[in-house]
Amino acid sequence: MRTLLILGAGTAGTLMAHKLRAALAPTAWRILIIDQDDDHIYQPGLLFIPFGLDRAADDRRSRRALLPEGVELNLDGVVALDTDKRQVRTRAGELLPYDVLILATGTQVEPGLTEGLTGEGWGQTASDFYTMAGSERLRGMLAGLRGGRLVVNIAELPIKCPVAALEFALLADAHLRADGRRAGVEIVYVTPLSGAFTKPVASRLLGELLERRQIRVVPDFSLAKVDGQRRQIHSWGGAKEDYDLLVSVPLHYGAGFLRGHPIADDAGFVHIDKHTLEVKGQERVFALGDGTDAPTSKAGAVAHFQGEVLFENVLRAIEGLPALPAFDGHANCFIESGDGKAMLLDFNYETEPLPGRFPLPGIGPFTLLEESEVNHWGKRAFRWIYWNLLLRGKELPLDHRMLMAGKRSA
Which residues contact 319 (CB under 8 A, 6 or more apart)? Predict the structure, then answer.
């Protein structure tokens, strides 16, 4: 019996386990998936918990319960990968060989790697919302905010869900207005980018939205250190910003055992062919999701679109056929803007977000690069889709390619 090994039981790993278990004969293929705990978090929900719009219980499930029958789950974690011997070593010291390997190792937030960030004030006047603990802490911290400066800061790129920090700033504005506290709070969005987003058209429109909400943008700010005693963040260029409450998007890294590995960069992001999802220089080794160096968003929708392509390429590899260069970098994401509205972006490697209707040309129901209530409800409905369809590898009425139908020039 041959072994298909998946490292990571998050979004990407779980959906691939479902797809491949349904396609490969159990008598011929053992499918084993390895992670380090049994906690599967619906990460989009972490944005809503600080504002009392989501409950932690609704955004957490057992990894084991989400996997199909016939897929083994090992929770020992991986400490080493040997691509020459085609095996991994777990924390328990077990050596596990593979015939086909899929890396779905995701990213980890590392607040402790920024000088001072987890020092004085961490958990009282500063927190992240990229972890369940941080998100729950922020609920109380926001409730106690009566005035001063709320600073939302991205330490450095890349990060998971690149629009999440923008969403937090916009939701904070709406939340404070609803409570009658907004007039006394200055909201500042501090980013290493030169604008609100990476794509020019979207950056301009999002920048205008922030301006209308009186959220000040501080661009080109690459975080060097945090002074929790003085409540200041400092850039490598010498700039500084004061805060009363710091909402941090900390540094992101790939899996620890991949940092500096020959197949990855120093941060642990795996080098892949961005179209085939093959790991460069390896045979029958693939990667998808947040843990790769593909120049597209680290988001659940991307993992879904990649999964459609990777499923076919894994089956082709088993048959001895070359991989198809079918992934175009397709990404789409809702941007929650507060007041029961949201925007939607749809783009790929070559084409930036454009206005129009999605997914049906001229009909929608979602609007691109425009706020709408329908977009908001689309984002809120996605949690059910995530738990019941996407993770289980079900077919969704979305093409893995970015389609131009229904879009128009900005």
Answer: none
Total number of domains in the chain: 3
Residues 34 and 79 both lie in one domain: yes
Q: Which of 147, 167, 338 is nearest to 243 (CA)?
A: 147
- The answer to whether residue 48 sits within a structural domain is yes
Token representation of residue 373: 């209530």
Given a contact cutoff of 8 angstroms between Cβ atoms, the answer to whether 17 and 33 are in contact is: yes
Nearest to 105 by CA among 254, 248, 231: 254
- Structure tokens given for 365: 């129901």
Residues 398, 42, 158, 215: is their CA dihedral positive or negative?
A: positive
Q: What is the pTM of this model?
A: 0.96
In a shared domain, residues 25 and 82: yes
pLDDT per residue as tens digits for the range 338-370: 999 999 999 999 999 989 999 988 888 999 999
Give the chain's radius of gyration (CA, Å): 21
Residue 242 lies in a domain: yes
Pick left, alpha or beta for residue 208 (phi over 0 → left; psi -120 to 50 → alpha; otherwise beta): alpha
How many whole angstroms separate alpha carbon 253 and alpha carbon 35? 16
> Is pLDDT at 247 greater than 80 in this prediction?
yes
225 and 134 assigned to the same domain: yes
Question: What CA–CA distance (Å, rounded) separates 308 from 320?
Answer: 19
Helix (H, G, I), strand (E, B) or coil at 247: strand
Closest CA to 252 of 284, 297, 197: 297
CATH code of the domain covering residue 40: 3.50.50.60
What are the C-alpha distances in Å from 5 to residues 57, 123, 156, 182? Answer: 30, 38, 32, 51
68 touches 18 (CB < 8 A): yes
